Amino acid sequence: SGLNFSVLLGSLRKSSLNAAVARALPDLAPPGITITPLGSIGEFPHYNTDVQDEGFPAPVLAMARQIAASDGVIIVTPEYNYSMPGVLKNAIDWLSRVSPQPFVGKPVAIETASPGLIGGARAQYHLRQSLVFLDAFVLNKPEAMIGQATQKIDPESLQLTDVGTREFLTRQISALAALAKRVRE
Ligand code: FNR
């Protein structure tokens, strides 16, 4: 049977380069793989155990359910100050407290896009570190670091137009599918 991956986006910006990458993914999926966006992490309050004790916010629970029901998660995020954006860390902190914790044993692929040359590489390793504690199965290779992203995304249409990047992302989705099949067995 087919696989369903969900996409977690680490930027809240309307004209986000990473959102453009995330929007391209459903079309880049090989046959038999469905890719669906998760809700906005901008709806999560600042993490606070006192708030959690009054009951998890509905958007947190909804996202945790969607992640649990998916065969894998693709996290698409900018790099902020050599790490992941605070809003993404906040979302991970919330999701990590839901029981059952939805990332346990979950195949995850990471994609970062940046106008800079390094393509967000440094954020990837901080994100991977947090995902170790969550006990996710993070895909090692291929690593999707999209540098010079302003030259690969059309500024008018905000579509990912670069053919090489599109082909590369299809290869990464296939690798995540192979990991997800191994995890399922
Ligand atoms: C950035 N940017 C950035 N880029 C990078 O390659 N490494 C970095 O460490 C940072 N740090 C950083 C911090 C903050 C607070 C901002 C606002 C920006 C630039 C960043 O890659 C650029 O703004 C992207 O366009 C952000 O991604 P979205 O929102 O376009 O997806």
UniProtKB/TrEMBL annotation:
Give every NADPH-dependent FMN reductase-like domain span.
Answer: 7-151
* Species name: Acetobacter aceti NBRC 14818
Gene Ontology cellular component annotations, sorted alphabetically: cytosol
Q: Which InterPro entries match?
A: Flavoprotein-like_sf, FMN_Rdtase-like_dom, NAD(P)H-dep_reductase
| Molecular function as annotated in GO | FMN binding; oxidoreductase activity
Name of the molecule in the record: Chromate reductase
Give the Pfam families listed for this entry: FMN_red
